[in-house]
Amino acid sequence: MISFPKWKSVLVVLVSLLGIVYTAPNFLSKATLDKLPDWVPSQQINLGLDLQGGSHLLLQVDTADVREKMILSLKEAVRTSLRSADPRIGYRNLKTTRTGVSFSLRKPEDREAARKALSSLSVLMPNGKFSNIINISDDGKVATVTPSEQAIKDRISAVVDQSIEIVGRRVNETGVNEPTIQRQGTDRILVQLPGLGDPQRIVDLLGQTAQMTFHLVDISAGAARGKAPAGSKILPSLNEEGRTYVVKNRVMVSGENLEDAQATFQQGQPVVSIRFNGLGGKQFGKVTAENVGKPFAIVLDGRVVSAPRINEPILGGAAIISGGFNVQGAQDLALLLRAGALPAPLKILEQRSVGPDLGADSIAAGKLAGLIGLLGVAVFMVVTYGFFGLVANIALVMNMFLIGALLSVLGATLTLPGIAGIILTIGMAVDANVLIFERIREEVHNGKSPVNAIESGFNRAFTTIVDANVTTGIAAVILFVMGTGAIKGFAVTLGIGIICSMFTAIMLSRMIITIWALRSRPKTLNV
Amino acid sequence: MKLKLIPSDTKIPFLKYRFMTFGASALLILLSVFMFFGPGLNKGIDFEGGIMIEVGFEKAPDLADMRSALGGLGLGSVSLQTFGASDDILIRVQRQDGDNEAQKVAVDTVKARLQADYGDSVSYRRIEFVGPTVSGELVKTAVEAVLVSVFAILIYIWLRFEWHYSIGAIAALVHDVILTIGMFAITGLEFNVASVAAILTIVGYSINDTVVVYDRIRENFRRYKKMDVSDLLNLSINETLSRTVITSLTTLLALIALFVFGGEVIRGFAAAMIFGVVVGTYSSIFVAAPILLQMGLKHYNEADDAFKPTGDDAYENES
After folding, report:
1. Strand ranges (DSSP E) for chain B?
2. Three-state DSSP class for A490?
3. A470 Cβ contact partners less than 8 Å away, ≥ 6 residues apart
């Protein structure tokens, strides 16, 4: 005999009510929600950047640069170790290769001594391997020090962590609302900037490493003719097109020692005032005291900002950088110096920005399409199945509430493809009910009594519904696992839609129809 | 009286026409493959790399003027089209040679030119650029996703039914995917990440439709132990025909609403889905079921798990 257990009815009604309660906050404004007491659900659906407007930037840390710098500093370490050994170890041809550092010993008998001197460079890492692999041939002619893959990986990982922090500081300094900055994969950083439709300034800021160094200008005769003597290099000017400077290689003071930087004005010109920390202040004071009257170059990422003449020793640790800035330029430089230099350059792999207008248009279009789709399907169902169609429509609307509630509670992000997923669900959700009703039609046609037809209709359609939905579910899960960004959003709504439609078709509409059949005891079934 | 789109007692001899429909499908598949390898897909920036900028103007700009202005920037091929409204222009710039940095420079160049020509009246509705690294990965992931899902569904059907059904369902699935890709190649509709999502959804939909027919075939095998296989398949298709058509229609209703009212950005996705639903419905009737006969599906021994009577069948026997 057909029946629907009490406890099941309670469960269905409860789930339906929760669906409505948890969807409700989405119809209220933020202000209203803030006034409600704490225990009332107030979670709204997160809108993706494509709906609320905003930018998505995928950055990649230049790992080749990290590797290069690592090998370069290893070369210096090898040089120091060999020189400071006692007795000093003779070597020649110390150079970097693609994978590490190579040199040859002057005397093959120094082999063991060299090995010992270099052993301090190679530390045991947590994975039980050494950070650098030292190889010296028997005749001492070919010696190599190669960083292990794990050591390089660790270094890259540390550089990425540090970059994320610097990116975060730079982005926060610009005053963007609620940015999220996350690591993606081994060497990528995902920056999401809600509400920012044109991220030009941030793209520019992140495109610079902002490595600032102070060098003496080469004032030798050779340099005056525009040639770079040994120990010097030619650098272009930052703001003056075509102008170059000959600058000594040696870094006198580094930007790492800056404590603060602010954009300000001097004689009506935008400038950046900087303040060094204790160490930097001391170094700066010493250099300026020893080189009064000589030009001193301020270099940013390989370009000379300016090279003013040192008029007097600067001992207080504070200085002014001028260099033909406009206001924005001075502000950006101050920001970059405050946030610190990136340990390696960042490349922009992907940028997707949506203006707030387009986002709002998309939401409006999605709502309209959803409502019209819903209406079309609802009318069709009533025309085709009459009262049963009405039940299917109640299930369909409930289905929408459940999807809304789950999206709100899970804190899932709704994207434009996600809206498409929901609208698709409107069409497909009635499928389970169609399967059931068609089955009931058949059973009636085969001469079963109405109540029996209803019962076996639901029972027989059940396996089909499960099989059919599991296969669609497989597609949704795979989309979720393998997809990125907006596609994930589509997979989430599709998957949630499948679960909710199964619940509403199998439980909710069954409950309504069973209760109706038990009350009215229909003699004939007009499906 | 209710609307009955499909009468209760249809006896359409679908299987009789199977060589015609197989032929038609084979022809369409050949055409799709030819179009795919010949003219190819109109790949969007997701897969090709490059730049896409959607710009809103205060009043409709002259496209020819803008085309020559932007074409003269030395960025290679630049294409312009109105996007939904005449004052909304979609600018596409081919992928720039060189690294990811070159793409950013090109975005700046286009924006500077628009600024110079149209001043502050332009609003950027959307700026997207995809570098070569990412577009390569997107292609790889897309192909993997389709293959993995087809494989996973194959396994599921195999477990729930048996291998004939598995092969038949996959044949229908591959048929639908190839035709949908062919549709993209023939219409020149932009092929992007959303298109892949559409294809995967079509995979899900098509298999859903096929499974409903297969379920009925399995049930009828249990019920009519002596019926000729070809008659049995035909009966099963006819019995599920009403459901197949009605579900396709409701899905199409929702998709058409999405296509017409859902906005320009989502239109390509909706178009692909509409095509996929039509093809998926066709294939579950004309490909998935008839192919079972071609593979020599027979009445199976009772030992086969999938063909044991279920509780529901037992109830049937009692009454």
Report:
1. 42-43, 50-56, 78-83, 85-93, 123-130, 190-191
2. helix
3. B156
The answer to whether the Cβ–Cβ distance between B215 and A426 falls below 8 Å is no
| In CATH, B50-130 is 3.30.70.3220 | yes
**B273, B202 contact by CB (below 8 A):** yes
Which sequence spans correspond to the domains of chain B?
14-42+135-309, 50-130
Answer CATH for A213-323 from 3.30.1360.200, 2.60.120.260, 3.40.50.300, 3.40.50.2300: 3.30.1360.200
Is A460 in contact with B208 (Cβ distance < 8 A)? no
Cβ-Cβ contacts under 8 Å, B112 against chain A: none
Of B4, B128, B251, the CB nearest to A351: B128
Using an 8 Å CB-CB cutoff, list chain B residues near A495.
Answer: none
CA distance A520 to chain B (A): 20
In chain B, whose CA is at the least distance from the CA of A452?
B319
Return the residue matching tokens 């040199």: A103
E-assigned strands of A322-466?
A: 346-354, 413-414
- Nearest Cβ partner of B263 from A362, A490, A526? A362
Give pLDDT, residue B299. Answer: 75
Asked casually if ipTM beats, i.e. exceeds, 0.90, the reply is no
Q: Per the structure block, which two tokens stand in for B77?
A: 């091929």
CA–CA distance, B169 with B215 (Å, rounded to integer): 12
Distance CA A172, CA A144 (A): 44
**C-beta of residue A458 within 8 angstroms of C-beta of residue A4:** no
Q: How many residues in chain B?
A: 319
Q: Tell me A255's DSSP state.
A: G
Second CATH level (architecture) for the domain B14-42+135-309? Up-down Bundle (1.20)
Q: Tell me if chain B has a CB within 8 Å of the CB of A318.
A: no
Does B77 score more than 80 pLDDT?
yes
Helix (H) or strand (E) holding A402: helix A387-410
Amino acid in position A43: Q
What are the tens digits of pLDDT across the range B105-162? 888 888 888 888 888 788 888 888 888 888 888 888 888 888 888 888 888 888 888 8
